Amino acid sequence: MAENLTKPTAVDPRAFVAAVERPGRRADAETLLALMERITGRQPRMWGPSIIGFGRYHYRLANGRAETILATGFSPRKANTVLYVMPGYDDLTDDLTDDLTDDLTDDLTDDLAVLGKHRTGASCLYVNRLADVDLDVLERIVRRGLDRLHSLHDVDAG
User: How many other C-beta atoms are found inside a 10 Å radius of the C-beta of residue 123?
Assistant: First the structure.
């Protein structure tokens, strides 16, 4: 089984953001850096070469291997900005039995419907520009994603 390459690094997230080539993408990254710090109350940390993460959580794969990954974060990529809202979107329509999780799932689904121009995949929320989305709704999505994550896993500051 391949090793997970998305691990914390010693790279300074602020230096990484300052080096983003496209001015608009860099400005969006600076906005997200401040937004996520405020939402999480945690300092940013680089995960792999291009993901800025906040907090971390531990989970177990089907084969029993334990993994650790960022709790939430983003990556200013060339094509778009990717926000990582764990535990993801794949199970939003699953029949979940926990009332708290059901309520959070319904709220997250409603927020995605009014966010603005975006697309989702697994745990990724793709936006071309922050100007294309409602930042208040985006903040709710990140908060609700973290609430969902806390209801399913132990999350720490990492």
Answer: 19
Decide: 155 and 55 in contact? Cβ < 8 Å: yes
Over residues 79-118, the pLDDT tens digits come to 999 999 987 765 444 433 344 445 555 677 888 899 999 9
Distance CA 46, CA 29 (A): 13
pTM (2 d.p.): 0.85
DSSP calls for 25-76: HHHHHHHHHHHHHHHH----EEETTTEEEEEEEEEE-TTS-EEEEEEEEEEE
In the numeric block, which tokens belong to residue 152?
Answer: 């399913």
Q: Is 130 left (phi over 0), alpha (psi -120 to 50) or beta?
A: alpha
Burial of 81 (0-12, 13-18, 19+ CB in 10 A): buried
H or E element that contains 45 = strand 45-47
Query: What is d(CA 31, CA 103) in angstroms, rounded to the nearest whole number?
Result: 29
User: Is 146 within 8 Å of 104 (Cβ atoms)?
Assistant: no
Can you read off the two tokens belonging to residue 57? 């959580």
CA 43, 39, 16: angle at the middle one, nearest 5?
40
Say how many C-beta atoms besides its own lie within 10 A of residue 134's C-beta.
14
* Number of residues assigned to the chain: 158
Ordered by where they begin, the domains of the chain are 13-153 (3.90.1150.200)
